[in-house]
Every structure is written in structure tokens, then in C-alpha cells.
Amino acid sequence: MAEAKSIGRDRYFDTLRAIAIIRVVVFHAFPIAALELVFPSMGVMFALGGSLMVKSLDRSELKTIKNRLRRLLPALWVMALVAVPTMIRHGWPDQPSWPHLLLWVFPIADPPSSEFGYPAAGVLWYLVTYLWLVLLSPWLLRLYRRWSLPTVLLPLLLLMVLMAYPHTLGQTIAWVLHNILMYGSCWVLGFAHREGDLAKLRPALVLSLAAVCVGGGLGWAVLHPGDEGIDLPGHPVAYSIFSLGFVLALMRWSPRMDWLARIRTLDGFVSMVNNRAVTIYLWHNVAITAAVMLYGPLELWKLPTEGLGNAAGFGVALVLIAAIVVTIGWVEDLAAKRQPRLSPFVKRRAPRQPVAPAPVPEPAGYY
Length: 367
Fold this sequence. Notes:
Elements: H1 11-29, H2 33-38, H3 41-57, H4 61-90, H5 98-101, H6 118-121, H7 125-146, H8 148-164, H9 171-195, H10 197-200, H11 203-223, H12 236-252, H13 258-262, H14 264-275, H15 277-293, H16 306-328, H17 330-335
Helix pairs in contact: 1-3, 1-14, 1-15, 3-7, 3-9, 3-12, 4-7, 4-15, 7-8, 7-9, 8-9, 8-12, 9-12, 11-12, 15-16
């Protein structure tokens, strides 16, 4: 496949991110283990984030970190304004002190929540992990440029040590470190993509390495099943290696995406998901939980089959996600320093012929 040489947004990255987020939403609605095997969304999303960090860090490290925080945190703050008062009003046994609630402002660890608020807080580990990888990126990038392959493997080795001695650190620190190390190799592999190191590898070698990683991770999970069968995410090292295999195959090539613009509906959908990626991720589990609670009142059980009822419930969740995106998604526009819009859709126009060359700004919507 030909290398993509487009100016502005990388539509291949946009498409990968859209697929990843859709898979997350579908998995939380229908927790089928096979979905984790079809597409390891989190590994792909962290790899995309790592690649985009390199593009910005070379311009200004401090400004890049500030920009990433600005893109992520406002959407979390909006959720905090809704979730924290709701949890307090609903009744919050063992409510944490106010200093602990500051994790909803700057999440260096998972923000606290009640059982009632868990659908909102349960997905925030991703933001915590992303935040730490952003903060660590200047040092990781220097390390990668000096020792490339060892830096890719370092998170995996440290994860093995952590899994061997899980009680050495406190529960909170161990959980945060576990997630950083589990996806750290994917993040660094994003560095390799942006530096052009992946493109230098022979296709046969990349495909062989990808097959070994995917097969090895999956094989370990098959040989060590959980109580309910194959549980690949339950084996962090195996899942990290499995994700690395997918990232290698997906990011070694940058296929041309000209065809996407010709399918206007799909092109607009991909743009919409990217423009509201943080909002969709933060709120999708809340919408799914609300749809489950509405299953009885809406009498979806009266539908002819259970499958139709589940599909209808998922449809309710999608409607709720759409309503949330329209209601508060504009916060992402403010965070990206764009004109706030209720509609998440952006009409893509054919670029005009430039009068003179101009520097390309950082693509809006990336985080």
C-alpha cells in the first residue's frame, strides 16, 4: 500500500481512532470476550497518542504537555460537575475527603466514586494513564532516540516485575503503574511510527513479528483460561504483547484514504467521532447504564425476541450518547480553541490553492 502524504489531518489515524472508540462502546454494551480479540482498542489509541506526541514535542515540550492537558481535562471537569454532586446527593458511604476529590480536577490516580457513580468513574483509568504517558513523554522520547528497541521493551519488562511482586507497592500506585506499563510499549511504538523507524522495517519482518506477538499473547490466554473461559485482558503481559502485534501491523503502513472522502456519510461520521472523542469515551458507559435502567420502563421486554430487546436497548444508549454529545460536546471545541458548535459534524471543503506556503498547524481534535 502506498504511503499517505496528506497535509493537515491524518485520515488514517482518524479512522483508526473512530474504530477504536466504536469498539469500546460496543464492548461495554455487549461484553463479549471475542471483541477484545478482534481489535485491541486501547493499545491502538495509546499508540496513536504516542505518535502524535512526537510530532508536537519537537516544537516545544512544555507547550505540548500544556496543550494535551487542555484538550483532556475540561471534558473531565464537566463530568465532575455532574457526577460528584449527584453521588453526594444519592448517598455516598465512606465519602472521601475533599483532597481526594481533587483527583476529579487533576487525575494522577483514579478519581474516587461511589458504587452509584462507578459507570462514570470506571472508565477514567484511561485518562489517568494517558495523562502520565503525556507527562513522561519528553524523557521517554529521549530514551527512545538513544536506545530504541530497549525502550519499546522496557515497559513490558517492568510489567513482568510488577506482576511478580504485586504487593510491593500500595494498591493505588500499583494500579496506576500497572496501566502505564501495560500500554507503555504501545505508546513508545507510536514514537517508532512517527520517527519513521517502522517504515524502515521489511514488510515480511513486521508481519512475522506481529503474528508472533498476536499468536503468543492469545496462546498464553488459551493455555491459562479464567473462570469464564479465555480472558486475555486478565493476563496483562500477554494482552500487552497481543496489542503490540496489532499496533505493529496497523502502523507499519499508512494507506491512502482518498476513498473515504467519496463516501460522505462515512467521512462525516469519522470526523464526528474524532471531534467528540473525549466526550463519547467519558459518557458512553453512563449512557449504556441508563439504557439498562430504562429497559423495564420502556417495556422493551415486550419485543418478540431477547435479541431485539437488547438491540433496542443499545439503540436507546446511542440516542443518549448523541444527546450528551450535542449538549456538552462543544466543551471539546473550547478546549481545542475552536469556535464552539452544538453540531459535532464539520463540513469538509476542498482546499483552496494556497497563495504562499504556510506552516501546518497541529491538527485540531487530536489528544
